[in-house]
Structure formats: structure tokens, C-alpha cells
Design goal:
By secondary structure, the protein is of the alpha/beta class. The protein is 31% helix and 31% strand. The chain has a domain at 134-265: Cytidine Deaminase, domain 2, CATH 3.40.140.10. The protein contains 9 helices and 14 strands.
Length: 267
């Protein structure tokens, strides 16, 4: 399934119209089933379906490790738009309350205020236990490594990217998607399935950091988040409660650090 395709477009420039061709990013639904039952449908860029489902399941609390799933596979006889996560008997018994939720926890419930949401999520997501620290130049190196691998971004100017980097700024997993949540799910899923998630110290994002992304990183045990744009206030509040650092680029080449200053240091 194509991730991007060229489309004809008319360019108006200085009063003159000319025909051009531009790549547009594809968007398709992905249905995620757990033990054969529908759990969620997300809109995403095709590709990395297994990793996407794995990272999503970790972020939701459906699994805590690869061992909790006896299989994660595309449904036979169907397109790549349906993935089924099959749980082990022990895990199935342990997460019945998670599977019974009508809406997955990455979505905000209607009518709930920010303070209540942080309290609710804090009960579901444990604080990050890692004591890892990282220097600011290492974070910059991670950002540059992610940018170098943004193939879809260069073609379409429409995709988000997420990278998980180790303590030296080396990328462990990099993913692109039309949705920033999906990109992080895919990157986490790649690292999880590859047995390298424990090495991840920094999550680098091409977008802003929202509370949902903090939740996903915390579930993955990643202590530091760095983004191009500023985080939301709710994201910072949740990250502070979860023992995480949140930072972003500042004008003129600086870095804003919103919480977790003790995890970040100058080289």
C-alpha cells in the first residue's frame, strides 16, 4: 500500500498559472482488534501496521511487554487495515477492565477538565523509574538524526515524525505518519518488537507534545521528551507528575525546559 502518491495541482504565482505535480500523504483507517474483538480505529499513514498495533497496545495498557501477546498479526483474508492482538491467557485475565473501556485512554472524555484528566491518567500510568540523564547537545543530535530520516516529510511536507534515541543520541527507532500519535506508537512498537525499548532515553517529536504523547512515552519508560513546538500545559503537568523531562526548541537555537531539569545538563 502506497504511503504517498503524486497529484496534479495548479500553482498560481505572480499572476501566472502553471501545472505541477505534488506528492500527497496517504491516509487510511487501521482497525485494531484485541482477541478478535474491535478495540479502536485510528487514521494513519499505511505501513508499520504490526509495530503500530504493538506500540498502541503498550500505550493503552493492553500489554506491558511483548510476552503479554501471543501474536500480533494482520487478519488473514483482509487488507492491511486490520490488525489483531492476541493476548496470553494470563494477560487477558489481568486487563479485563482495560478491554471493557468504551473509549481508549488516548482520547479525552467529554466534560472532563484538565486537572481531573491528569489525576485520572496518574492512576493509570506509573511514574517513570529510569534515572537516566542526557545532555542538551545529545538531544539536538537526536533531532538531526530524525530529520535525516524523514523521507515522507521531504516528499509531502505533511507527515509527523517520532524517534526514540539512546543516551548518546543514536536513533533506536524512527517512524513517520500523518498523525503525531501514530508516529510515536510506531516508533515505540519498533523498539518494543526489536527488544530495544529499554535503551530508549529520549523521545524526539516533530510536533508539539500533548498529554497523550506524554502518556505513551511514560508507558514505554522513556524519561525525556523533546519537540519542535511547545508542549501543552496539561502535558507538562502530567510529565512533572510522572518524573519526566519535557523540552522544546526555542527561537535563536535555544532550548526551553519545562520540567525535569535534573535530567538535562549541558555537555
Amino acid at each position: 500500500m502506497d504511503q504517498e502518491h503524486p497529484q496534479p495541482v495548479t500553482l498560481w504565482e505572480a499572476g501566472v498559472a502553471s501545472a505541477r505535480s505534488l506528492y500527497l500523504l496517504e491516509e487510511e483507517p487501521l482497525a485494531i482488534r484485541v482477541d478478535g474483538k474491535p478495540y479502536a480505529v485510528v487514521m494513519r499513514t499505511p505501513g508499520d501496521e504490526i509495530a503500530h498495533a504493538a506500540g498502541f497496545s503498550l500505550g493503552e495498557g493492553i500489554i506491558d511487554s511483548v510476552a503479554d501477546a501471543s501474536a500480533i498479526a494482520l487478519c488473514e483474508g483482509e487488507t492491511a487495515n486490520v490488525v489483531t492482538v492476541t493476548l496470553s491467557a494470563e494477560r487477558r485475565a489481568a486487563v479485563g477492565n482495560v478491554l471493557d473501556r468504551r473509549n481508549y485512554i488516548s482520547q479525552t472524555s467529554c466534560g472532563i477538565c484538565g486537572k481531573e484528566l491528569v489525576e485520572d491518567l496518574f492512576q493509570l500510568v506509573r511514574p517513570v523509574r529510569s534515572s537516566a540523564t542526557v545532555d542538551l547537545e545529545t538531544i539536538r543530535a537526536g533531532m538531526e538524526a530524525m530529520a535525516d530520516r524523514q523521507v515522507l516529510r521531504r516528499k509531502t511536507r505533511a507527515s509527523h515524525a517520532a524517534a526514540l534515541c539512546d543516551s548518546a543520541g543514536r536513533p533506536i527507532a524512527v517512524a513517520e505518519d500523518i498523525g503525531r500519535h501514530n508516529a510515536l506508537d510506531k516508533a515505540i512498537g519498533q523498539a518494543l518488537l526489536g527488544g530495544r525499548l529499554a535503551e530508549a532515553v529520549v523521545a524526539v517529536l516533530s510536533s508539539r507534545i500533548s498529554y497523550e504523547l506524554v502518556q505513551k512515552a511514560a508507558r514505554a519508560g522513556v524519561p525525556v521528551m523533546f519537540s519542535v513546538s511547545r508542549p501543552t500545559g496539561l502535558a507538562v503537568d502530567l510529565a512533572r507528575r510522572l518524573n519526566m523531562a519535557v523540552a522544546c526548541l526555542a527561537p535563536g537555537g535555544g532550548i526551553y525546559v519545562f520540567c525535569g531539569q535534573d535530567r538535562l545538563h549541558r555537555p
